[in-house]
């Protein structure tokens, strides 16, 4: 779709970069590099960017879209639901119980840097739900507002990308969890857009 071409390219490059990084260094080494080099110094910034992937971001976008047009609100609602289904599919079924970094390294007696004030989870690591939500918000916003200029798109992309990295800095996820969350977030938004097109009483293009 032409309207998401720019952020789709940047998002795919983001995912590819994560996959190449992990492919060359290994998942464990990639995580430890972030933990040893970034976590002690960037914890405060990571806590801020992590909020991008929380529920309130989707609520704000939903409110803005409902104010503009009910079909835009329906698009956001569908995207929110689709993203949740993708997340539950992996966390509660396909990869239920998969270890997060803290559980994995605890067995190895490896010392990690933790960011003060952050509750670290141990299981159901894939995908990163925060990253999934952040990239869903990014793509849904561009789909709902196709006339958004490229600086606005890039700002939203940067926020989503930093949200993903923050989840590794905060010792919540592996880099591959972030890559998976980004891909599923994109798919959630695109799936919602296609579903809206198929509904008999609605056409997503008429909401633009």
Structure explained in plain terms:
It is a single chain. The protein is mainly α. The chain has one domain (2-18, 47-111, 123-207). 72% of the residues lie in helices and 0% in strands. Helix 4 (55-68) runs antiparallel to helix 5, helix 7 packs parallel to helix 9 (175-198) and helix 8 (150-169) packs across helix 9 (175-198). It is elongated, with a radius of gyration of 17 Å.
Structural class computed from helices and strand pairing: mainly alpha
| Arithmetic mean of pLDDT | 94
- Compressed to H and E, one letter per element, the order equals HHHHHHHHH
Proportion in β-strands:
under 5%
Could you say which overall geometry the principal axes of the C-alpha atoms support?
elongated
Integer tally of domains: 1
Q: What percent of the residues sit in helical stretches (DSSP H or I)? A: over 70%
CA-to-CA gap between the ends?
14 Å
* Structure annotation, total helices: 9
Rg for CA atoms: 17 Å
Strand segment count: 0
What does the largest sheet look like? none
pLDDT < 50 stretches: none
